[in-house]
Design a protein that fits this description.
Blueprint lengths: L1 H15 L1 H8 L1 H16 L3 H122 L10 H19 L7 H15 L9 H125 L1 H14 L17
Helix pairs in contact: 2-3, 3-8, 4-5, 4-7, 5-6, 7-8
Keywords: Coiled coil, Signal
Amino acid sequence: MKILVLCLIALVIADKFDQFRAFDEDEFGRTLIDTLQMQMSTGEPIARFIEIMRNLETSIENEQKEDDKANNEYQNQCTEDIKVLQQESANLERRTVEIQSILDELEPLRSYKQGQADAKNAWKVETEKKLADLVKKRETEKAEFDKKVEEHDYATFVIETVRRMFSDKSQSFLQLNNESQWQKVRDYFINASEQAKKFEIKKSYSKIFNVLAEIASSAQSEDFQNSPTVNKIVNLCDLMLKQIDDSKALETKAEQKRLNMFILEKGNFDKDLTNLNNALAQLTAAILGLDNRIQDQKRDLTDYNARLAAKNKQSEDRGGECREKAYNYQLIREKREQKRQLVSQIIGAFSANQRDFAEYVKLRGQAGDFRGKNFQILGNPTED
């Protein structure tokens, strides 16, 4: 029965002290109650504790006001810093857009100029090929003309030599007998005919020389001095010499015409090549200038992009610092507010229940536990 009464008493006391025990469960509250307990142990008036608590509450409020002011100033500075950083980022970004706009103009222009240069180069190659073909054709024509002149000159030499045989009375040729004279003429024409077979152009001279050789062969029985064949051969020689001269004159005239045409066409090609080379030089210079400008702009773009990334990072870091500072400020403010409320509650509880509070502190001191988690009052069953 006695034990039951003690248990009931313990439960009543526990209920009465629940509010005080709640203060004691908080670390700061426990410190405050420890302070009260120490003051009670020194015999100081209880009112002194109330004064200390009110001063502490005022100190916490003032401390919070200072923190509020410092936080407002800091956050305002954050806002200003971030605004400046964002404006700098905007300026850098605007500059990158301007540079990219310049590149968007320069690169197509460079491609257009390169296309022009490629077309000019192709035209130049084609023109050089045509000029080379023209020169080659001219060399072939000149070689052919020289060969014709050579063949004409050879025929002229042969015919003039034979004609002199009949016209030059002082030649030892005329001292030969008839048969030897005609044989010599015949052999001369046959030899000339064999040489003419090697001609590349005037191969017909070989046949003509053969005809003359046959005429000389058929006249071997005639008296050379009085033979009608002599006059016939001399007349034929004169006729052939005139035809050869006429043919040579025609060939020379045709050659001159070809040469004039070659000079004209080559002049046109040379003029075209000069114009093409000048145009290519201008295009090459323009392309080189564009390449330099494009490289400069790309270098600037890379630099501004790096600066923009760094500035954005700086802005993000500054924003992170400000948010972290605001978060820490809010945590501290909430903790400080909890402390202030706890002080206010302790003041209120102590003012309203000084005797019970004093009794609780006394019993707490008798239990020898100033840190309260294991503090028991008369074997409170709620604590281990």
